[in-house]
Amino acid sequence: MADEKEKKQKSAAPAQGGGKPQGGGKPQGKKAKPAQEEAGGEQPSGKPARPKANNRSTARMREKYYKEVLPALMKEFSLENTMAAPKLEKIVVNMGVGEATQNAKLIDPAVSEITQIAGQKPIVTKAKKSIAQFKVREGNPIGVMVTLRGDRMYEFFDRLVNIALPRVRDFRGVPTKSFDGRGNFTLGVRDQLIFPEIDYSKVEKMKGMNITIVTTAGNDDQARALLKHMGMPFRTAQ
Fold first, then answer.
1. SS3 label, residue 108
2. CA 68 – CA 230 distance, rounded (Å)
3. What are the distances in angstroms from CA 236 to CA 8, 173, 219, 228?
4. Adjacent-strand bridge partners of 48
């Protein structure tokens, strides 16, 4: 009996000691991907691997900036480095809804309209402090705001300059003095119907908005030249 116990202990010792697996190979962890998958060939099921979609198109105004506007600005201001040339940084669209302090449901149409105009859902701006004269309490919704960057910014600028502003009644150009001294331009719009995305039959009330175009220009002259080359219809001096 003692000899049989010793034999069993000796045979179980390598398994308990965690010896090397047979064959001298390394212990396998996660299964390695087949070479065909890594190379983008056929999948294990036999079907060809699906290529990644790369159909994203660049905004028209972005292409215009790098092909036409940037060389013109560098020549006009005698710039040697392309990074020193002014460019669009962001566009902020702000719509105030003062009546929402009495009826919070009035903020919903503004959110829907700005979403259609900008192609991006806005945030609801709230009052920072209470004002008894205007019947405003801290935290009440008073408007909506959206910040556009990248291709959405260029697409919105394209629609604003080429479609929306020409639809303004008796339009004679935007003022050239609406700069803040640091290269940023603010434009006021009286109603949202100049944008073709808005359905006239669904509009309950005219609401104006402020459109602020933020640039990297160091002064107003560079910002004015940038917007002029981009197609902003400034008012001619008379």
1. helix
2. 9
3. 103, 7, 20, 12
4. 42
